[in-house]
Input
Amino acid sequence: MTLPGRALVTALVPLAAALAAVGIAALAGLNQARVEAAGFGGLFFGFFLDQFPLYPFAVIYGAARILAVTGEALDRPVALRLLGAALGLGLLLGLSLYPTFGGLVLRLAFMVGGMSFLHGVPMPGARALGAFAAMLPFGAALGLAGLVGGRKGRRGQGLRALLRALLRAAALWWALGLLGLGRTLGLAGWPQRSLDGREALIAAGLVLIAFLPHAIIMARRERRSEAAVESVSRGRYSQR
Output
């Protein structure tokens, strides 16, 4: 199946941005000392970054997804696209960085996962529940941007539209759950020290495997939206 150009870009640019961020962090030797020297240590470092060292790349993926979805929605007025981008980015960054790194997203994940484990849920199940709790505010920011400033899409689909929304949510759940294993899978030393080559490969591999399902789902969604817009345009043209 061939994807139209804009749909392919919208799907892959956010994933490429997250992977590029991993490469930049490794090549620049980014670590806690350097960020603190730049005056941003109080915002970005602390308990939640130590526990979830890959979440910064999830924020980059989410921000790039918001910009891509609103940027290519040519069937929407520019004002709505800008509003959708502003609302989505504001909500994502606020939920991820306020009052310190992790915001409500990681605090919910830690609280739900931790309490579940303390009440007898096995660790894999507790991690899954924590990732689900994190997905809700994270996905809400992406969904708000698309609802306000994304493509109009097709209406009146009812159950199919709901199922596609659930599928996108499940893909984000998978992504956040997998990224939450960063410390377990060999990234316990970052960001206290810089990423070495092995750790950079691990981080890039986890980011790729985490967000590729969501990127594919979004590509299929954008393809359907483009097809619907083209169908409407052809119908209008044929009536002239």
Remarks:
- The chain has a mean pLDDT of 87.
- The first helix runs from residue 5 to 27.
